[in-house]
Amino acid sequence: MQEYELAVLPGDGIGNEVMPEALRVLDVVGAKYGVRFGYRHFDWSCETYKSTGAMMPPDGLARLRDHDAILLGAVGWPGVPDHISLWGLLLPIRREFDQYVNLRPVRLLPGVTPPVRDKQPGDIDFWVVRENTEGEYSQLGGRQGEGTPTEMVLQTAAFTRRGTDRIMRYAFELARELGKPHVTSATKSNGIYHSMPYWDERFAAIAAEYPEITVDQDHIDILCARFVMSPERFDVVVASNLFGDILSDLGPGVTGTIGVAPSGNINPERTYPSTFEPVHGSAPDIAGKGIANPIGQIWSAAMMLDHLGLAEAGADVVAAIERVLADASAPRTPDLGGKATTEDLGRAIAEAVRG
Ligand code: NAI
Ligand code: MG
């Protein structure tokens, strides 16, 4: 029997409510495909910060290192500034483990009413590939003349050839693998003088390696409008860290509830474990009520299966999610217009996987 050791970090708030449902589904799909998942639980969270002054122990990354993958819930809680929880746990994992791809499917699921009119499942079905380690999110820069009228702040964006080429190549490889014929690049080379013309130059160079894939590039402003007005046109969208961050929330926003959206922070070379987590946060407004939608967490686990080479099992889980959502008599959490609990929906999906 194949065995995988997973690091499980539920984090804060509803992370603790949706994680058990993902593990429930993993147990079922594992039994079905003859795979065993071992779970090592880590309770690192804002609670950890409040009691120890750090989001994780000093050897935290070393303790995660040897797992096959990391399954994360959500991190962040009122009382701990968000930049502390983010830079104390999520960003060190992404950067130290060179998880340079942030991958998010944008897919309109059956039974979900999107905020854009007249769209059916199939109309919105694409992937956002966000660069996850460099670009605009850097600590380069500084401040001078603090508190004076000449105060000045510099924030520098850094684009390396290695970083730019590898994210673009990942996007093209993904398009090839999924049989998607088109890659769109998010740019802003009309306004940003150095980095974005470079981004365009590298996009053209990498695109030339994939002659069967058609390409275009949109400035980020019109690209945002097109995500809403004509989402059908996209297959794979590749973007820098900042643009990708925005697009990868806008995409799921266009498809309905944020509670269903998954993501992967991927180290394609598999030198380090990759992290799979729902797009949503800890949702303090509904935490503790048992009504959070577990689909984002369950779908993230399905992306993890795919990454581990268990593509059939991953597709099985996604199909089960779609079947349950399409079934009007199946349980639905309040964000989907129903009255079901997190556990009701998680059990329904687990049963659908069992078949
Ligand atoms: P949020 O995603 O936690 O909540 C936004 C809204 O969506 C809330 O009304 C919430 O109830 C709803 N929502 C989110 N997930 C849901 C689900 N599964 N089912 C039903 N409804 C759901 O974002 P917010 O409020 O901006 O952030 C709360 C905390 O989470 C902050 O501390 C923030 O820093 C953190 N956060 C962490 C993320 C992560 O761990 N990757 C991502 C986003 C936010
Ligand atoms: Mg974001």
From TrEMBL:
It is an enzyme of class 1 (oxidoreductase). It catalyses: (R)-malate + NAD(+) = pyruvate + CO2 + NADH. Its cofactor is Mn(2+); Mg(2+). The keyword Phosphoprotein does not apply. Its EC number is 1.1.1.83. Residues 5-349 form the Isopropylmalate dehydrogenase-like domain. Keywords: Manganese, Metal-binding, NAD, Oxidoreductase. SMART domains: Iso_dh. GO terms for molecular function: D-malate dehydrogenase (decarboxylating) (NAD+) activity; magnesium ion binding; NAD binding. PANTHER family: D-MALATE DEHYDROGENASE [DECARBOXYLATING] (PTHR43275). Belongs to the isocitrate and isopropylmalate dehydrogenases family. This is D-malate dehydrogenase (decarboxylating). It comes from Saccharopolyspora hirsuta. The lineage of its organism: Bacteria, Bacillati, Actinomycetota, Actinomycetes, Pseudonocardiales.
